[in-house]
């Protein structure tokens, strides 16, 4: 892993991004890995390493840098949850998307990159991955249990690249009504594939998380891997 610095598009400063490169001499696609509300934490870093082991370049930008750089917390204590929610509530998602666009452009130019790049996000990052699908030129986007995606359905007609949605059936942060709205919107788009994972809660694929579900995570990650391998090379 190496840390690089990227300049924000609005000129407000620079932020860190953490790059995980595969052990290969061949060029490969890149994945912008988008954090949950816990920052670029150990769980997200483990996901980045897994992607690198699969032969992709993974790059995870620090999106909370305008509030606090270097956030790395878990879901194991009330204090950490309180801090995570405070950071989420203070986070400007539109500026976050602009930071992700900067990261996406940088990902395409990294050593060993083949110029093809997508995004993969979890929770807050799952929502941001959908926003990247509607607002950027990413080649593919993958969203794990994104929150508030139903509010983005009006933007679905802007999507022009594959978007995969992984939805937890018992997500405590997403109502059944919201899920139905998302699925209805997905059915009208040729670009979107949505999958429901029965009996699991939010964050079922969070490495080391309290709601991690091995079976659902393996199935979802397998679908993701197949899509990324097809589209990123």
From TrEMBL:
Taxonomic path: Bacteria, Pseudomonadati, Pseudomonadota, Alphaproteobacteria, Acetobacterales
Species annotation: Acidocella aquatica
Residue ranges of domain Dienelactone hydrolase in the record: 15-230
Residues annotated as transmembrane: none
Top-level division of the source organism's lineage: Bacteria
Protein name, entry field: Carboxymethylenebutenolidase
Matches recorded under InterPro entries: AB_hydrolase_fold (IPR029058), Dienelactn_hydro (IPR002925), Dienelactone_hydrolase-like (IPR051049)
